């Protein structure tokens, strides 16, 4: 987790004295930490050459780390000569490379693609040096393996970025000249900020909502796209902002993602149907001409549906009549956080029912919901018993649920924690403080074993501490028999339909209690290498199977 103040500026195009002086002035005045340049830094012609010589001789300096990549033009030979022996042209002017990734000391993850797309795919890859202002589609695609980014820098625009926007593109800027592979990269990385270059004029798009990759584990990410004008243009050439890696951008207004349906690298939800705010966020679910009854949602659009073609079934540890137990992708605990367990400890209880189906087929009966709740609650108790037994009573457990109209697939998450923290009411206190911080409604106590009267729009949490009776604990440790034991409490608060609420609320509270604040975002907890991440997930699932076998209610 980190916080930084960032300055982003457009192309300097050889006007180093003017541009770098403005960067220094802005950084000093606003106490900014780093600067990023999109587009061409260096120019052509006698005047640009003279400024470059002055710059290289130390006549122009930079007060903050300033990063750049290649724009439309090749880098000058004098600059390349400097970069052959260092990643800095001069102190604090650092080259990001033609393409690549960077994580700053503040923890800001930056991914960049410089140059222009090579239209001729027959050109051999080896002909592209690290300073050339060109890139191939495959190179942009490969950067998607980084999984996520706080900031994406591209010299060219992504294809269709102006679609669904009500903001006029400035004269002289070709909105139709975007690149499809950059659109796919933006969809894959889901950056918080995407900056590009348009020397003829700045264009700041409305925020747009990215389709969420993994069901509803996180609130859908918003991306802010801005294209900066050149320093010579003046208006709209720079943008300063603060970024906190633990708090994704939020907004009351945004558009759907602009990229056409053929763009995504893999199947995603259809944003036009179910990624909109709940009706109550937008005049009670659906105003304005929407049909009263929609077709059933395709399971392929939900990443928690077992019927989905590419469902990650290796994560599943137990299957019952109405629900399943899985390990968590991007778990909050690290592998060594709870050495008493054979896995990270973070599990999910997911109902087989697809919540979005109610929009098409009507509300389920209370009896149907009760059967599902009872089975999920049995799973919760079994996981509690396992955690208590494997830790010899040292660990308790917290289970939380976000139930919100519009979420496609509800689920519960279970996270171990030191039992003493629950007994000392530190866990309850942390949830109540967070509730107060975000000005949510007050918590109400409820029966841990009962379905709530309200069927939706609430946050609920259970806490459990193992029994202090050594005989009961010994029986559980031996064979998993006996009741849940210990002490269980539950509380909830309602979420009004027009209220802003992050589905990350429970994980954020638990991250603070476990001192794992840098893992609040599940994507930040994943390994950068896709193959290694898959291997880690499979190992985590096997560890849960080993620990849970004697406690699994579906096997009894």
From TrEMBL:
Biological process annotations from GO: mRNA splicing, via spliceosome
Region (Disordered): 248-299, 531-556
One Pfam family linked to the record: CwfJ_C_1
Biased amino acid composition, Basic and acidic residues: 270-287, 531-548
GO cellular component: post-mRNA release spliceosomal complex
Alphabetical list of InterPro entries matching this protein: Cwf19-like, Cwf19-like_C_dom-1, Cwf19-like_C_dom-2, HIT-like_sf
Protein name, UniProt field: Cwf19-like C-terminal domain-containing protein
Chain ranges of the Cwf19-like C-terminal domain: 291-423
GO molecular function, one term: RNA lariat debranching enzyme activator activity
Domain Cwf19-like protein C-terminal intervals: 496-552
